[in-house]
Amino acid sequence: MMQNVHLAPGADEDDLYSGYNDYNPTFDTEDLESDAAFQQAVRTSHGRRPPVTAKIPGTSASRPLATGFGPKTALSSSMGRPMTGAIQDGVARPLTAVHAAGYTKAALRGSVFDPLGQARGPAPPLEMKNEDTPEEKIRQLEKKVNELVEESCLAHSCGDLKLALEKAKDAGRKERVLVRQREQIASPENINLDLTYSVLFNLASQYSANEMYAEALNTYQVIVKNKMFSNGGRLKVNMANIYLKQRNYSKAIKFYRMALDQIPSVHKEMRIKIMQNIGVAFIKTGQYTDGISSFEHIMSTSPNLKAGFNLILCYFAIGDREQMKKAFHKLISVPLEIDYDDKYISPNDDPHTNLLIEAIKNDQLRQMERERKAMAEKYIMTAAKLIAPAIETSFAIGYDWCVDVVKASHYVELANDLEINKAITYLRQKDFYQAVETLKMFEKKDSRVKSAAATNLSFLYYLENELAQATNYADLAVNSDRYNPSALTNKGNTVFANGDYEKAAEFYKEALRNDSSCTEALYNIGLTYKKLNRIDEALDCFLKLHAILRNSAQVLYQIASLYEIMEDPNQAIEWLMQLISVVPTDSHALSKLGELYDNEGDKSQAFQYYYESYRYFPSNIEVIEWLGAYYIDTQFCEKAIQYFERAALIQPTEVKWQLMVASCYRRSGNYQKALDTYKEIHRKFPENVECLRFLVRLCTDMGLKEVQEYVTKLKRVEKLKEMREQRVKSGRDGSARSRREGSAGGGCLNFCTRNGLDLSRILPKRLH
């Protein structure tokens, strides 16, 4: 071993820097073309430098260095250089670095100068991924399942429930294939439980959204019963919701309680919602005492508006007055946790502050606050209207108690609304005097409340046809709040009733400018344009209204009526068809359809709709007359008899219906029945000439002896009729003569009037 170890020579033995000026033939480039070893190294891979390897486990061992200048030497260093003390080409490397190692020709003969590693050639190409391996197939299938679940959720959010369900089913099928493949090549522990859970949960949700409740429950059961899903038990809430939709309230309560046991107490909000659902289920089953227990617990733990309102409902159902009052106090004490309007009022003229306030005045948070406040007001108003008649001896005293309680809370502005509702309750009870007196109390209140009360008063007087009072209160309502669309609409109604349609249209337009969603003003302005014969503008108004109120029967009828006025029967028929799809039992719409088809010459369709109209309202004389005439035209006179008999019942003093009945008997060949009917008509109307003529004709045809009697009566009646006509004619001539005499004496009458004379002494007695 020591034979390879060479000590560094002393300072006096050799110069430290000797050999640096020696010429190394390696760098002689002039004879490279004739150097056989170099040319072989260029043509082959013998001159390539070995790769640099690190001394870490698992790497390849050092390889011998191959050059064209010397024998192969084993490299034990990580950088591919000779180790200290090793011999290379017969030259020993110094053992220590105290003295310079120096460079010799022999030390440089074993390598080629290639700092950029160009002799190694290009890098090998990337290894192609093998997609046929089982692991790669599983990864691709798992990716496809995730994509299907995402597509199902997106389709559900877009409202395409059918597509969402199809995607969810497809994801379920592919996930089962994925599980089988994993079981074949790996242990069951490698199954992706999260993916299985998401696929099953999405499938159950889509079943529920498509109202396939049995399938949804089965899928939820698969999740709940699988112990490998740690939080699967919480899905019993979803199962309980389905049972609640199916009105299986006992099972819904059972599953809600099971879910409540599995949800830890840290999830306080979730537990409160489940308890609220339990209370609602108890109300549905009529177990109000159990419902009260649930809602009382919620109101004591985390009070909210829905629970407070439901608690009032339960106490109202069992008739506990005192508890209703306490529950109402709890309801109005629920904190809304919203900022009030003072926050949105600028305290100064700072432009930056004003810009900030303008930015947040109608943002999403502000809209949410408005919705929450509106919901609170709705619950309080509904609860007050519900309990007011029940908590005291009369509803008026109950309303007064509710108003006092509301005034003491932070819902002060609702007190006036409750007073107005009190007046409306009087109206429902048809106590108009008390309603008017209650509304008149608001004349000295603030402008908004005064305007609302005056609007209601104006409407009341309008219904009672007291247009003067209606106009006065409409003016008061408009003057109190010019931006109240209801007040402007009522003012327009009073002007419309007085016949000033142009001015009424101006009030309706102003109401629409203040509130574009005021459908009453839009409907009324359409009627006004119809009155003014501005048909195109009226049609535009009703078409706009139809876009807002899609199933309004009144709007559909007005559009059909306008098309009829425009002489477009096809459009009128189309809109009437839409109308009867909304109100299929409207006899007037059905008769109008029959009339339009009759005008178009389609008797069969006209008969169908006239008959449907008669079936729903068998007292319309026009429909009865058309049906009777239709059967006569089609030679089914015996079928026409029942319609004319009904018309005779509706109008017993109208002789023509009874004559039509007798005529139908005569046309159908039943002469005896026709004769009896004519005799009955003659008994009721002895001076009817037409009846006597038919009696004479029938008796003559049948050879009866009574023919002479009826001939005599007919002559006498005709003579009386002629005398009556002459008397009427002479009366007309006399009245015309009197008018001429009156115009001649007009000067005398005017003279007497101007001079204050007593006309009773001048005019003849017959003029009194």
Automatic annotation (TrEMBL):
<feature type="region of interest" description="Disordered">
    <location>
        <begin position="114"/>
        <end position="134"/>
    </location>
</feature>
<feature type="repeat" description="TPR">
    <location>
        <begin position="233"/>
        <end position="266"/>
    </location>
</feature>
<keyword id="KW-0677">Repeat</keyword>
<feature type="region of interest" description="Disordered">
    <location>
        <begin position="42"/>
        <end position="66"/>
    </location>
</feature>
<dbReference type="GO" id="GO:0001822">
    <property type="term" value="P:kidney development"/>
</dbReference>
<dbReference type="InterPro" id="IPR019734">
    <property type="entry name" value="TPR_rpt"/>
</dbReference>
<dbReference type="GO" id="GO:0019894">
    <property type="term" value="F:kinesin binding"/>
</dbReference>
<dbReference type="Pfam" id="PF13181">
    <property type="entry name" value="TPR_8"/>
</dbReference>
<feature type="region of interest" description="Disordered">
    <location>
        <begin position="1"/>
        <end position="24"/>
    </location>
</feature>
<keyword id="KW-0963">Cytoplasm</keyword>
<keyword id="KW-0966">Cell projection</keyword>
<feature type="region of interest" description="Disordered">
    <location>
        <begin position="725"/>
        <end position="744"/>
    </location>
</feature>
<dbReference type="GO" id="GO:1905515">
    <property type="term" value="P:non-motile cilium assembly"/>
</dbReference>
<dbReference type="Pfam" id="PF13176">
    <property type="entry name" value="TPR_7"/>
</dbReference>
<dbReference type="GO" id="GO:0005813">
    <property type="term" value="C:centrosome"/>
</dbReference>
<protein>
    <recommendedName>
        <fullName>Intraflagellar transport protein 88 homolog</fullName>
    </recommendedName>
</protein>
<keyword id="KW-0206">Cytoskeleton</keyword>
<feature type="repeat" description="TPR">
    <location>
        <begin position="553"/>
        <end position="586"/>
    </location>
</feature>
<feature type="repeat" description="TPR">
    <location>
        <begin position="272"/>
        <end position="305"/>
    </location>
</feature>
<comment type="function">
    <text>Positively regulates primary cilium biogenesis. Also involved in autophagy since it is required for trafficking of ATG16L and the expansion of the autophagic compartment.</text>
</comment>
<dbReference type="InterPro" id="IPR011990">
    <property type="entry name" value="TPR-like_helical_dom_sf"/>
</dbReference>
<dbReference type="GO" id="GO:0042073">
    <property type="term" value="P:intraciliary transport"/>
</dbReference>
<dbReference type="GO" id="GO:0097546">
    <property type="term" value="C:ciliary base"/>
</dbReference>
<keyword id="KW-0969">Cilium</keyword>
<feature type="repeat" description="TPR">
    <location>
        <begin position="587"/>
        <end position="620"/>
    </location>
</feature>
<dbReference type="GO" id="GO:0036064">
    <property type="term" value="C:ciliary basal body"/>
</dbReference>
<dbReference type="GO" id="GO:0005814">
    <property type="term" value="C:centriole"/>
</dbReference>
<keyword id="KW-0802">TPR repeat</keyword>
<dbReference type="Pfam" id="PF13174">
    <property type="entry name" value="TPR_6"/>
</dbReference>
<dbReference type="Pfam" id="PF12895">
    <property type="entry name" value="ANAPC3"/>
</dbReference>
<feature type="repeat" description="TPR">
    <location>
        <begin position="519"/>
        <end position="552"/>
    </location>
</feature>
<dbReference type="GO" id="GO:0097730">
    <property type="term" value="C:non-motile cilium"/>
</dbReference>
<keyword id="KW-0970">Cilium biogenesis/degradation</keyword>
<dbReference type="GO" id="GO:0031514">
    <property type="term" value="C:motile cilium"/>
</dbReference>
<keyword id="KW-0282">Flagellum</keyword>
<dbReference type="GO" id="GO:0005829">
    <property type="term" value="C:cytosol"/>
</dbReference>
<dbReference type="GO" id="GO:1902017">
    <property type="term" value="P:regulation of cilium assembly"/>
</dbReference>
<dbReference type="GO" id="GO:0060122">
    <property type="term" value="P:inner ear receptor cell stereocilium organization"/>
</dbReference>
<feature type="repeat" description="TPR">
    <location>
        <begin position="621"/>
        <end position="654"/>
    </location>
</feature>
<comment type="subunit">
    <text>Component of the IFT complex B, at least composed of IFT20, IFT22, IFT25, IFT27, IFT46, IFT52, TRAF3IP1/IFT54, IFT57, IFT74, IFT80, IFT81, and IFT88. Interacts with IFT20, IFT22, IFT25, IFT27, IFT52, TRAF3IP1, IFT74, IFT80 and IFT81. Interacts with IFT172. Interacts with IFT57. Interacts with IFT46. Interacts with IFT70B. Interacts with C2CD3. Interacts with ENTR1 (via N-terminus). Interacts with LRRC56. Interacts with DZIP1. Interacts with CCDC38. Interacts with CCDC146. Interacts with CFAP53.</text>
</comment>
<dbReference type="GO" id="GO:0097542">
    <property type="term" value="C:ciliary tip"/>
</dbReference>
<dbReference type="GO" id="GO:0030992">
    <property type="term" value="C:intraciliary transport particle B"/>
</dbReference>
